[in-house]
Amino acid sequence: MCYDISFSTKYELITEYIPDLIIDPQIQFDHESFMHVQAQSYQKKPVIYSEGGKLYMKEFEWGVIADYMRTPEQVKKSRAFMCNAQSEKIFDKKSYWHRIRRNRCLLPVEGFFEHREVKGMKNKVPYFIQIKGRPLFFLPALYAYAPIPDVETGEVRGTFTVVTRAANEVMRQIHNSGSNPGRMPLMLTPELELKWLDEHLSDEELKELLEFEMPSAELQYQPVWSIRTTKERPDGKSKLEVFNWENLPPLALPTLPEGRGDQSSL
Q1: CB 146 within 8 A of CB 192
Q2: Calpha distance 209→195 (Å, rounded)
Q3: What three-state secondary structure class fits 33?
Q4: Is the backbone of residue 21 left (phi > 0), alpha (psi -120 to 50) or beta?
Q5: Tell me, what DSSP letter sits at residue 192?
Q6: What's the pLDDT tens digit per position in 179-206?
Q7: What does the buried/exposed string (b/e) look like for 227-258 if buried means 16 or more CB atoms within 10 Å of the residue's CB?
Q8: What is the distance between the alpha carbons of residues 113 and 4, in angstroms, rounded to a whole number?
């Protein structure tokens, strides 16, 4: 699943990509804390959504608070399972995701993290994954407003969930264990990212977007130091830089379309 992302790049890149974006002046970009954001921290992140033909960027909390969560106890019990939405369930009429399928937004990221289980190694190895040639890209997401106000601030919170799909060739090798292996976040081309925000998108067009698979050859992926720890890296480098794990077997190289040249992943 997609529970760990990074957005430590300059937010000005967002306005280069979406020039007419209306940005909430209360947004605070903390590049240090955004270097690694974990879903169940329910941290506020900037998301982009469309309303009345205009694009807005506001801070929403990661982890949807659904309209059936009417008490703080219900939120505490159920919210941890609302950080990802499986694309296959968005058109299941029994699913909550079907009800909010028109509440689409984009989560700007520099990349995301996923963990690989390796036989003979005590701990899973984290990888940092990006789209080649894109210092910033956007993960498709859905949003909902909490049915109850925050108990401390009285604020009606905007919340979001990241859409996931079946993994491609490379991501199946990385996300190879856990309760729901073989998944990856839905990733789109720049043109399709903007289409995701189209308020007039038909269900058939939405299904086409959900079925889009980012080719393995378009991804850049590298092992990094443990991300879910407060310990410093032994070499003192950034969380996002390559870490050479001893005895780490390489991933099988992705199959490239005919005529695409070499098969180097990094």
Answers
A1: no
A2: 9
A3: helix
A4: beta
A5: H
A6: 899 999 999 999 999 999 999 999 999 9
A7: beeeeeeeeeeebbeebebeeeeebeebeeee
A8: 5
